[in-house]
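Aggregate trends can hide what the representation actually does to any particular protein. In the encoding step, the backbone of a single protein was reduced to a row of integers, each denoting a local shape. The record that follows shows the chain in one-letter code together with its fold in token form.

***
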Amino acid sequence: MKNIRVLYIEAAYGFGGSLTGLLQLFQNLPPHIEPVLVTPFDPWTHIEKPVGLIHRHVDITAPIVKQDGHWLPGILRYRRDEFLPWKRNVQELIRQFSPQMVHANNSLMINYACGHAAKACRVPSICHQKDFEYEGKLIRLMAKFSRFDHHIATSHANATQLIQLGISKKRCTAIYEPVVGPTATQLQYRQSLGHRDLPVVAMHSMVIHWKGQHVFLRAIAEHIRRGNVAIKPVIAGSAPAGEPGYMNELKTLAKELGISDQVDFIGHQRDVYQFLAGVDVAVHASVSPEPFGRVVPEAMLMGIGGIVSTGGGPAEYVTHGQTGLHAASGDVSGLADAIEQLAMSPETRESMGVAARAFALENFDASRLTGNVVALYERILAGR
């Protein structure tokens, strides 16, 4: 089988589920796919570098977001600070590595320049949508003039939005993210811990405002005020590079709520399943629609029935009352109710965890889903 070199571009400016998904895709690629990874940051402080992976770090600084009250200054800054630097760099990387495919691994707005660079170099390209887009005329124009050959959406909800924005159904495929599960040893370790008298209720994700850690803290404070069952709250994760402001806000909020001595902020966890082995209730509290929400399948594969915000991918694949619970996005009292329901009932946690793991094993199988992505490469190349 002919080798296919793929230039994978992670254009986000910090480590998170988007790159984690890409690295797990790499683990399951067949031998004839040759990956080259490009990032604007150093990911290897957060995760182990795959052996033999070719990686290039491009020196593009994260743009400074300003609110001007008029769309034109923002467009000009976007063109100067993101579009042109990425287009130049991607064109140079295409010349250097001669890939048969460009795979841009983020939202259409972030990936947009990569599609234009690939088109200019006559290389087919895919936009792997890892976010919901902001609605508006600009993104509709980007969808209309997208230079990507195809778009992969990470959930059906994600695909629906892309189609509504103007991406053709023929050029859009929903493929869940491949998620590599825990080892047998990690599962056995979790089982050996048994039920705890003090259930651990945790969030693990990038610490950034839209992920909703502030909602989680307020719900924890309300739960503690009710006094029905004691819990141990934990926030795991780190802020994107150079953006510690929200983390500081969370710690200040915990003090204001009077729970700072009860909540543990434990930072980024390199081994997510080792961390989840000690978690009883996993919370996803996004205040914006989450396209996929990798932290949720990770918890499910560990046998944890968690709580997810409504809207977006997680509420699509978590069945309320069977494999987890739903809480309306931003609803502090609703989240506190869900936390209380699971914290008070080890039996409910156990049954949901078993059902969640069975669902995740079937629907997030890394080998099968990676095969779907590779089949898409081959179909596009055959069409060329």
About this structure: The longest strand covers residues 33-39.
